[in-house]
From TrEMBL:
Cross-referenced InterPro entries: Erg6_SMT_methyltransf (IPR050447), Methyltransf_11 (IPR013216), MeTrfase_SMT (IPR030384), SAM-dependent_MTases_sf (IPR029063), Sterol_MeTrfase_C (IPR013705)
Protein name: Methyltransferase
GO cellular component terms, semicolon-separated: endoplasmic reticulum
Keyword Metal-binding (UniProt): no
Length: 342
């Protein structure tokens, strides 16, 4: 059960940030990024603050427009966005070979949409790690509604420094989350540490593809739009992710950019030329209505000042994601399955 109404959107804007401080938080967040003079080194050095501000500011928008699972998915013709998202999560569970009783870790779990779906699908216990207090509070409430609060929980912590003992989990996964890590090798090493020997780690990563040209100004612009709109210190290439996995000690079983094989483009829900009643809020008309609704809510004081600017950089992100997808220079679903040696 996701937040659905305008009042829920307004009340959630800003997350745990005091409503009077939202505007200054937007200022600080924007200044981390290149369009506002920010540097990659600063984003990496201050990734905890940057990512926390990002998710405090955008989670309510995400849930309003996307639902409980904040990720893309390959999609068949005739399949709804919601159906494709569930199938994408089930695929991950099947690749990991999850079995009833397994203890599983979701790295960068958001409000727990995939966590709940995978736990119910596989009859496992799933722990989500997340460093954002607002998302954890929201996730725990949704766990209770879904009836999985006895088998699923959250830990507030930085996934670069996880508070778990070595060899704690039967499986680990990450869905479009470890892209927030300032250092892929360090992140994967922590996952390696908490995973039991002989067990697997699977993920969908946000990456620049081999088609990305770092010297192409249009490509640079698209990459920067995705970074500011999605709270990223940088976007690694698929080759960098693969190399980081191996350096962390994993054996890579298989890897592939799953976006290449999607019958429908993964970015279709954000493409303004596309219209869908089942995901109306993501269409051009739906986003126009949301934009004006947020403007009105901010004007009458129901939404904090700065809400329109959050909606604006999310729009910029959508434009960058669609452009990156069409030019095939970016993918949100570089998949890999890796094993920790015995």
């Amino acid at each position: 059960m996701s937040k659905a109404g305008a009042f829920d959107l307004a009340s959630g804007l800003g997350g745990k940030i005091e409503k009077n401080d939202v505007l200054s938080a937007v200022d600080k967040y924007e200044k981390y990024h290149s369009d506002f003079g920010g540097a990659e080194e600063d984003r990496k050095a201050n990734y905890t603050d940057m990512v926390n501000k990002y998710y405090d500011l955008v989670t309510s928008f995400y849930e309003y427009g996307w639902g409980e699972s904040f990720h893309f998915a390959p999609r068949w013709k005739g399949e709804s966005l919601r159906e494709s998202i569930k199938r994408h999560e089930h695929f991950l569970a099947l690749q990991l070979g999850l079995k009833p009783g397994h203890k599983v870790l979701d790295v960068g779990c958001g409000i727990g949409g995939p966590l709940r779906e995978i736990a119910r699908f596989s009859s496992t216990s799933v722990m989500g790690i997340n460093n954002n207090e607002y998302q954890i509070t929201r996730g725990k409430a949704l766990n209770r509604v879904a009836g999985v609060d006895q088998t699923c929980d959250f830990t507030k912590a930085d996934f670069m420094k996880m508070p778990f003992a070595d060899n704690s989990f039967d499986a680990v996964y990450a869905i479009e989350a470890t892209c927030h890590a300032p250092d892929a090798v360090g992140c994967y090493k922590e996952i390696f540490r908490v995973l039991k020997p002989g067990q697997s780690f699977a993920a969908y990563e946000w990456c620049m593809t081999d088609a990305f040209d770092p010297n192409n100004k249009e490509h640079q612009k698209i990459k920067a739009e995705i970074e500011i709109g999605d709270g990223l210190p940088d976007i690694r290439s698929t080759r960098q992710c693969l190399a980081a996995l191996k350096e962390a000690g994993f054996e890579v079983i298989w890897e592939n950019d799953i976006a290449k094989d999607s019958p429908l483009p993964w970015y279709l829900p954000l493409d303004t030329s596309h219209f869908s009643l089942s995901s109306f809020r993501l269409t051009a008309v739906g986003r126009f209505i949301t934009k004006n609704m947020v403007m009105g809510l901010e004007y009458v004081g129901l939404a904090p000042k700065g809400s329109q600017r959050v909606q604006s950089f999310l729009e910029k992100a959508a434009e960058g994601l669609v452009a990156g997808g069409k030019k095939e220079i970016f993918t949100p679903m570089y998949f890999f399955l890796a094993r920790k040696p015995q």
